[in-house]
Design goal:
Elongation Factor Tu (Ef-tu), domain 3, Rossmann fold, about 25% helix, 6 helices, 2 domains, six-stranded antiparallel β-sheet, alpha/beta
Length: about 240
């Protein structure tokens, strides 16, 4: 990863606790699915998935969840807000579209995100659209409630213009919510009960990633066809 100076374009609160940050960079190339590190004045380096696709360079998009004022994420957002330029390290990560999986001509690519794991999966989805990928792609994004949905304009555009499917699934439904409800993996399996010929990219918390994999593997998804950044920093315990 290389040190890069990034110009801060916008910092916008796009729902109750998620910030969309756009940066402008020069001399950077990355692969859809990779991440960057925001370097703080303390020397701390905080990883965030790049939420935009390579064809959108020199602009980069980040989605940062700030749960409370004491969180590291709050410190990151305040640092970005207060500077015209910040230092980032990029790119990093091997959960991306050039890991060889596309060379196998997969029958079906599952893109599964929980919460702000949306950023990485959005980048993968956008790149597959941009590259005119002709296979079957299904994007599932799970959030707790309707209030946790963000990037509404992007979702609308994707629904109207993308050749691939996209479902937002809320765990806690309401009378206002007209979309899918319940557990994310249940929606995936209702739509695709046989995953033996599928590959999956999964982004979210450690518990979400492994909990989802446990369910999908019961329906034929192979570990060898499953990809997540979680595998690198929180290896899965061996099953008994």
């Amino acid at each position: 990863m290389q040190d890069i100076t990034a110009k801060v374009n916008t910092v916008e609160l796009i729902n109750k606790d998620v910030y969309q940050i756009t940066l402008q960079v020069n001399d950077l190339s990355f692969i859809a699915g990779q991440y960057l590190m925001v370097v703080l004045p303390t020397g701390e380096q905080v990883p965030y998935s790049i939420g935009s696709a390579p064809h959108e360079l020199p602009n980069l998009t980040l989605y940062i969840l700030v749960s409370d004022a004491e969180s590291l994420a709050h410190k990151v957002v305040e640092h970005i807000k207060s500077n015209e330029n910040i230092t980032i390290k990029a790119p990093g990560g091997d959960c991306h579209l050039q890991n060889g999986i596309l060379d196998t001509s997969p029958e079906h690519i599952l893109l599964i995100a929980g919460g702000t794991g949306f950023a990485q999966i959005k980048s993968l989805y956008s790149e597959l659209v941009e590259s005119n990928f002709t296979g079957k792609v299904s994007f599932y994004w799970g959030v707790r409630s309707e209030e946790d949905v963000f990037a509404q304009s992007w979702l609308k555009h994707a629904h109207e213009h993308s050749p691939f499917s996209l479902e937002v699934v809320v765990n806690e439904g309401s009378e206002k919510w007209k979309g899918k409800t319940g557990w994310l993996y249940n929606t995936v399996l209702e739509d695709h009960p046989d995953l033996s010929k599928s590959v999956a990219f999964i982004s979210g918390s450690v518990a979400m990633v492994y909990g989802t994999l446990d369910q999908l593997e019961l329906k034929g998804l192979s570990q060898d066809n499953s990809y997540s950044d979680v595998f690198a920093y929180a290896p899965r315990p061996s099953k008994p």
